[in-house]
Specification:
By secondary structure, the protein is an alpha+beta fold. It has two domains: 234 residues, Molybdenum Cofactor Biosythetic Enzyme, Chain A (3-Layer(aba) Sandwich), CATH 3.40.980.10; 71 residues, Alpha-Beta Plaits, CATH 3.30.70. It has ten helices and 13 strands. The strands form three sheets. The protein has a six-stranded mixed β-sheet with strand order 3-2-4-9-8-7, with helices on both faces. A four-stranded antiparallel β-sheet has the order 11-12-10-13, covered by helices on one side. A hairpin with a 7-residue loop joins strand 11 and strand 12.
């Protein structure tokens, strides 16, 4: 193991690569090849295209086992909504190589923008980078800028007082796992690892043109997505990122009473990209009807009609018209 680390660390200081296989000869100097790479044959990735749809893949045994509550998919859903991106799918899967490979291939093929969350830490069960690399036949490669930023911006744990960045150790091996990223030699290196915040060493690895690999820690996931917004805006249908508009209409009627009208309305406005929703509020006296779409003017034009047909009122909050609780 120490021999491997010595070789890797020496690669970090070399101005150019040497003694690499011809298939890896196009790897730029800012990347160092892993000593035991996966197959070097890379699949052709799609060019950057307009983003209409998105998907979110939450990876982690701890989520499926109930140990951790997933908040990242909720944050991502709101992020997509605010930008006008149609989020089509959210999945939660285990830290299982075959599950990750199947899911990421399928999502990358079907959706314009894919985000994964979790499984990129230093421990044995953090297998997201390796599994996604295998999904697209890409090697894992040590990314020098990420490693250098890690050394500057991260601090050794207090329980590792003797840790040294230049001394081979099990701790250093674990840290290197977090900066070995899938690499496609047929694509520009700068498009495959994005640093979006100056005070964060964690890169957003981009694979197959549309798979964005993010950490599972909520505060990191949220900050990276927030800083990624300027990169994504030019690829949206509306580069200004006006987002999706939602109207809430509070009604005292039960769902069964408004269902016939809402069914007719949904069919009539579907061609305008408007979705009609009905949501019961169990145990309360009022339910909610929603109108959702990107055409704010058209959505607002429907409000008087809907208010009349459901005997309701346009509100800003679902509980706005709820009667005050009776005092005992």
């Amino acid at each position: 193991m120490f021999n491997r680390l010595n070789l890797v660390l020496r690669q970090l200081s070399r101005p150019s690569l040497a003694h690499v296989s011809p298939s890896a000869s196009s790897i730029p100097s800012l990347w160092s090849p892993r000593l035991t790479p996966l197959a070097m044959t890379s699949s052709a990735a799609p060019t950057a295209k307009t983003i209409h749809t998105a998907a979110c893949l939450i990876i982690g045994d701890e989520v499926l086992g109930g140990k951790t509550v997933d908040t990242n998919s909720t944050f991502f859903a709101k992020w997509c909504f605010s930008l006008g991106i149609e989020l089509k799918r959210i999945e939660v899967i285990a830290d299982d190589e075959s599950e990750i490979i199947e899911a990421v291939r399928r999502m990358s093929d079907r959706y314009d923008f894919v985000v994964t969350s979790g499984g990129i830490g230093p421990t044995h069960d953090d297998i997201t980078y390796e599994s996604i690399g295998k999904a697209f036949n890409l090697p894992l490669v040590l990314h020098k800028p990420a490693f250098e930023r890690m050394k500057v911006l991260s601090k050794p744990h207090p329980m590792q007082p003797n840790f040294d960045w230049e001394t081979p150790s099990p701790g250093l091996t674990a840290k290197l796992r977090m900066v070995e990223l899938p690499f496609d030699s047929s694509l520009p290196a700068e498009d495959q690892a994005l640093f979006v915040a100056e005070d964060m060493w964690v890169p957003i690895a981009v694979v197959n043109g549309n798979v964005h690999i993010l950490p599972g820690v909520p505060r990191l996931f949220e900050r990276l997505l927030a800083h990624l917004k300027p990169v994504i805006l030019p690829r949206l249908t509306d580069p200004e990122g006006k987002g999706i508009y939602r109207v809430l209409i509070s009604t005292p009627l039960p769902e069964s009473a408004v269902a016939p009208y809402l069914t007719e309305l949904a069919g009539r406005v579907a061609s305008h990209g408007i979705k009609v929703g009905s949501y019961p509020r169990w145990g309360l006296k009022r339910n909610t009807v929603t109108l959702v779409g990107t055409d704010q003017v058209y959505v607002q034009s429907l409000i008087p009609e809907v208010e009349m047909n459901v005997e309701g009122k346009w509100v800003q909050r679902e509980d706005e018209l709820d009667p005050p609780e009776e005092s005992n």
